Amino acid sequence: MRILARTVTTIVAAAALIVGLATPVAAAAALPAATPGVSAGASGGPAATGLAGGPAKTTLVGFKPGSIISDAVFTNKTTMTEAQIQAFFESKVKTCRTGYTCLKDFRITSVNRVADKYCSGYTGAANESAARIIFRVSQACNINPQVLIVMLQKEQGLITHTWPSQWRYDAALGQGCPDDAPCNPAYVGFFHQIYGAARQMQIYMEGRYFTWYAPGKTWNILYHPNRACGSAPVYVANKATASLYYYTPYQPNAAALAAGYGTGNSCSSYGNRNFYNYFTDWFGPTTVSQFSVSKVAISGYVLPGQAITANALFSPVPDSVSYQWFRNGTPIAQQTGRSYSILASDVGATLHVVVTARKNGHQNSSAQSTPYVTRSVTVGRLAGADREQTAVQVSREAWPTGTRTVFMATGRDFADALTAAPAASRAGGALLLTDPDRLSAAVRDELRRLAPTRVVLMGGTGVLTPAVQTQIAAAVPQARIERAAGADRYATSRAVVEQGGASPAILVATGRDFPDALSAAAAGSASRTPVILVNGEAATLDAATVATIRKTGATKATIVGGDGVVSAGISAQLASLGLSVGRLAGTDRYATNMEVNRTYYPTSALKALIAPGSDFPDALSASSLAGRWNVPLLLSEPDCLKTDVTDFFVSRGTKTITLVGGPAVLSEDGAAQLRRCG
């Protein structure tokens, strides 16, 4: 620091001694009085040469006398750990001259320092390394440890010195050590130098006692203690640069800048030049760059149960990104991740997120998303204790005053019920599931409530036994009992389609598995289109199926599922029959389901059903309700929705969602079921 004895002002503040240069420089006006007998310390000397790890060459490109270092870099205490500081010292001096202690090996006992508004205090300890002291002081006083390291080099060359004497450690930073007088005893010693200088920098930046290089103004700053060397106006841009001028009140002239680390002319001073040289050569830029950032976007369905995700693009790519979510302008506690799961209590609230990017050498940059008001959605559930009772609950919802026709299918297999759902819809009737051998009390009571005049049993006596037929007849004696049956599931499907009569279109699905047929059944129910089950692995349709298709008079066929489910040969054969053939397919059951729903509900779906895609019984009941309400049926994972499903709800303006199935197959918390998967 090299304080000049003739210009020292002592200011007592909070019982602490504050030492600094006290000759004010009028804004773009008067120069400080000439001070005779000034050594190179006040102005700084050329960099020491011939030392281990000596300075690299530099062009001083980028040096700005009014912005030597930014406040953000100057006060960034996170740049180095203690271990990194120690490793840096060791990289600069491999071997110390015999009989001397170099900085990498230097240790001293530190002392206590009480906390004040400039530093948070220090608890002394025995045998602390220089690296540890620098690290701890940087944390306590919020000073970049790189700044202290560079100051040690420019003042005493301690970083690269291989034979440092004790006096270099005692006056390591020149803190409280005038050039023409002994050091203030309060600052003698390495620890006192480091802590005192770091604290002094905070005092300088505070700007309460030191104002003559105050940032935001232009000051005439000398080139050298010799007034005859002249000065030049400098706009001091920030507090950190002002602090360096309080510490060393001279700017380098053209000769000093041209000399790199070397000697300029008799009017050259080097302290602030060397600070810039060492910092940029060792640690990079002294100023921080700004990020460019795109607008923060939020992806997700802004309603309870959904997770919304923040997306921001920063340039360059940051080292780290942090998030804070807000509700009605107030930070939401512990919500600092990229995604936020919306709660029921958020309905009607305004949500936004602030994203902050960090990168060494860049100013932290934050960006805020557009505020979003959380939409409300009604989430209901229809479920019973088992698959049969779930079908009963669906029937009550769909037919609150009863119906003339009821289709009865076994709940133990999917094939007959898949065909029955669209058939029931075309007939304006309900679908109930039953045990093959007995009629449960719940199903019996629902039959009585519906009071049908016609009951259609799906399948032969091997599927629904005579015993269950007898029990049905006893429950609704007024009803005519019919059977739609064939030798196998395909024959039963054909029988049901033929009973339904003519149709301009048909849906074709495999009878070998249920996932795609579930989507076909729901679409068929809603559109009153019959579903024909086929052996999708076969190369062509059998003659009986061709005959059934001809009987319907259909001119359009839509295959549900890829050609691995319903073969290309079947598609070609349908076309050869004169039908217009389309195919709705995705990569899995959920994607196929979405293709079906996008096609049948291209613009709006204010109401929708969700059923499990992993099993068929509840989805069978749901497909019947889809026909009654003319709404889409979306297949779901047990505790979340595929992204396509939530996007479908958004684009179709869905406001009411009904889950069909109990907590064992769809999340216990109905709203939570609406979360996006993944």
What's the helix and strand layout?
Layout: E1 8-13, E2 16-21, H1 40-43, H2 71-74, H3 82-92, E3 107-108, E4 128-129, H4 130-141, H5 145-156, H6 166-170, H7 190-206, E5 217-222, E6 231-236, H8 239-247, H9 254-258, H10 271-283, E7 292-293, E8 297-299, E9 307-311, E10 314-315, E11 320-327, E12 330-331, E13 339-341, E14 350-358, E15 365-368, E16 372-373, E17 378-382, H11 387-398, E18 405-410, H12 415-426, E19 430-434, H13 441-450, E20 454-458, H14 466-475, E21 480-484, H15 489-500, E22 505-510, H16 515-527, E23 531-534, H17 543-552, E24 556-560, H18 568-576, E25 580-584, H19 589-600, E26 607-612, H20 617-629, E27 633-636, H21 643-652, E28 656-660
Parallel strand pairs: 17-28, 18-19, 18-20, 20-21, 22-23, 22-24, 24-25, 26-27, 26-28
Antiparallel strand pairs: 1-2, 3-4, 5-6, 7-10, 8-9, 9-13, 11-12, 11-14, 14-15, 14-16
Helix pairs in contact: 3-4, 4-7, 5-10, 7-8, 11-13, 11-20, 12-15, 12-16, 12-20, 15-17, 16-19, 16-20
